[in-house]
């Protein structure tokens, strides 16, 4: 598992290096703000991919005496850092686009390399986003999911830039700056959703879907009389569950323990990387 996560994170880092370098060269050659904004976007993707690569290596380290719940939240912190980087990108793009529109200095040189770099970017971004999202879902990794969102955002922003280049090719140079602002709006939208999710996990916001699944499983557990004090928290790919169950008062300690173990195993079987702690109480307990 760890090797698969590291492999996809490293390959994305290499892809980000290539795309950033390619876009900077073509952006400088053509003077296209759309391509330069894409280059900056890819440069921050490069930083984000580097953060992700480090985060997935640390997050799978086991719990120790200083981190009793493991190191999973480094993935959520990584995702939040990537969000802030995306927002920085937006500020620069919007500022530069408005400056060009106000000054009227919107002329750019469109050549074959303008199209090559954008189309190449779309193909690579599509490939990387799919690979990252597949591994992210498989291992419940928010850091990899954030990286996948970076690359998928690049696809849409590259399409916007491509549209701007086509318009500029017909002498509508203002379209390049407008396309750059379109990139910024797309990035802001993705950043908001990604940042919100990262902050929720860091603040131990209850994952609603996980709670619903746990409640459904417990309601169908006939071996317990009732349950309460259900607490759920996420840390990276790991889910931690605590709850109290009531059992019949005439059961032995061993029988009660067997029921608790069964409940724990049932939850672990249905929820990936789930850690469960069950407290047992007799049903007549006040």
Describe what you observe in this structure.
- The chain has helices at 2-30, 33-59, 73-103, 112-139, 142-169, 174-202, 208-219, 253-270, and strands at residues 226-235, 238-247, 274-282.
- It starts with a helix and ends with a strand.
- It folds into two domains: 2-202, Alpha-lytic protease prodomain-like, CATH 1.20.1510; 208-282, Alpha-Beta Plaits (2-Layer Sandwich).
- Strands 1-2-3 form a three-stranded mixed sheet.
- The radius of gyration is 25 Å and the shape is elongated.
- By secondary structure, it is mostly helical.
Provide the descriptors you would attach to this structure in a database record.
286 residues; mainly alpha; Alpha-lytic protease prodomain-like; 2 domains; 3 strands
Radius of gyration: 25 Å
The overall strand count is 3
CATH architecture of the largest domain, please? Up-down Bundle
| Distance N to C terminus | 45 Å
Overall outline: elongated
Kindly report the average pLDDT value: 80
Strand fraction: 5-15%
CATH topology of the largest domain: Alpha-lytic protease prodomain-like
Poorly predicted regions: none
Structural class: mainly alpha
H-E string: HHHHHHHEEHE
In the CATH hierarchy, what is the class of the largest domain? Mainly Alpha
């Amino acid at each position: 598992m760890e090797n698969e996560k590291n492999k996809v994170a490293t390959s994305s880092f290499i892809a980000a290096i290539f795309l950033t370098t390619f876009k900077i060269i073509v952006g400088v050659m053509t003077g296209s703000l759309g391509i330069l904004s894409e280059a900056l976007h890819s440069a921050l993707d490069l930083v984000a991919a580097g953060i992700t690569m480090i985060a997935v290596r640390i997050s799978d380290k086991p719990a120790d005496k200083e981190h009793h719940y493991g190191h999973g939240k480094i993935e959520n912190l990584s995702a939040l850092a990537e969000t802030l980087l995306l927002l920085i990108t937006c500020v620069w793009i919007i500022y530069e686009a408005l400056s060009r529109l106000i000054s009227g200095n919107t002329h750019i040189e469109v050549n074959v390399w303008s199209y090559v770099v954008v189309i190449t970017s779309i193909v690579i971004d599509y490939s990387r986003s799919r690979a990252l999202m597949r591994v992210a879902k498989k291992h419940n990794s928010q850091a990899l999911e954030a990286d996948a969102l970076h690359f998928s955002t690049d696809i849409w922003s590259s399409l916007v830039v491509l549209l701007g280049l086509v318009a500029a090719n017909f002498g509508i140079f203002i379209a390049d700056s407008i396309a750059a602002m379109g990139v910024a709006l797309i990035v802001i939208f993705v950043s908001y959703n990604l940042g919100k999710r990262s902050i929720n996990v860091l603040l131990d916001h209850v994952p609603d879907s996980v709670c619903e699944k746990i409640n459904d499983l417990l309601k169908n557990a006939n071996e317990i009389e009732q349950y309460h004090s259900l607490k759920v928290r996420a840390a990276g790919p790991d889910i931690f569950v605590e709850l109290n169950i009531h059992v019949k008062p005439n059961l032995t300690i061993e029988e009660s323990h067997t029921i608790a173990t069964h409940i724990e195993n049932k939850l672990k079987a249905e929820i990936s990387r789930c850690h469960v702690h069950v407290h047992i109480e007799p049903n007549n307990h006040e």
